[in-house]
Design a protein that fits this description.
By secondary structure, the protein is of the alpha/beta class. It contains four helices and eleven strands; from the N terminus they run ααβββββββαββββα.
């Protein structure tokens, strides 16, 4: 009887131990499952990290390219509202509203002399006007130059023509004459157009157009403005180029 009870007690203890061991194994498995992410989640996280790193590196590379390749803005030397410097030329605005600078002019009869030349604009005011490099060389090999204007334009167009005439005559030593693109009753000026160009004569024609710019048509220089005031601005750009104050 005693042996039977011992046997039953032993079985009971064995069953209890088995249950306890199973519970421990289940707890360890659950703990492992908690600590270990599913493969899909881990893969997605790795992909996300890779994408973020790729974007970060890309931003750094692009930033360095811009820092290395974008030119620094051109510094304007503006001393005050009435004085600026451009390409080693100093421009001063005087009481008459004109901008004055000094240019050195070669004189065939004596040593080079310095002249004070007035302009309606300074070089910074005309930077946006298109001008093809080397355009002014068209005048080099001819003695005579006509400046022609539409007689229907107002007096500002005449001022623009005068701006060019004074440089061609005093600095380039050219014989400059005035002309009109149309006949005017009582006018002594000849009718001159771009068709009058020849081996000894060049023509500068002032025109109104959609864009302010300076260009050439078969050896004829066209100074174009959106209005008569713009013709003066374009004329100053042309003068700056002829005096080599501006190189572009």
């Amino acid at each position: 009887m005693v042996d039977k009870k011992r046997t039953q007690k032993s079985k009971k203890n064995t069953k209890k131990e088995t249950t306890t061991n199973k519970q421990k194994l289940d707890e360890k498995k659950e703990q492992k499952d908690v600590n270990q992410e599913p493969k899909n989640v881990k893969k997605d996280r790795n992909n996300l990290i890779f994408i973020l790193l790729f974007i970060s590196v890309g931003i750094l590379v692009i930033s360095s390219l811009f820092q290395n390749n974008v030119p620094e803005p051109k510094e304007e030397i503006i001393i005050d509202d009435s004085k600026v410097e451009f390409n080693n030329f100093t421009f001063e605005k005087k009481e008459d509203g004109m901008w004055y600078t000094y240019v050195l002019v070669d004189d065939f009869l004596s040593a080079p002399r310095e002249y004070e030349v007035p302009f309606y604009y300074n070089p910074y005011d005309v930077l946006d006007i298109e001008f093809r490099r080397g355009l002014e060389s068209i005048f080099l090999d001819v003695p005579n130059i006509y400046i022609t204007i539409n007689p229907e334009y107002d007096s500002k167009a005449v001022i623009a023509g005068t701006e060019i005439s004074k440089i061609l005559g005093k600095v380039w030593f050219k014989k400059v004459k005035a002309g009109l693109t149309k006949q005017v009753n009582g006018s002594e000026f000849p009718i001159i157009t771009c068709e009058d160009i020849n081996s000894k004569t060049r023509v500068i024609e002032f025109r109104l157009g959609d864009v302010t710019k300076i260009f050439q048509e078969e050896g004829c220089i066209i100074i174009q403005g959106t209005d008569e005031q713009e013709l003066i601005r374009a004329a100053d750009k042309m003068a700056f180029r002829m005096l080599k104050i501006m190189m572009a």
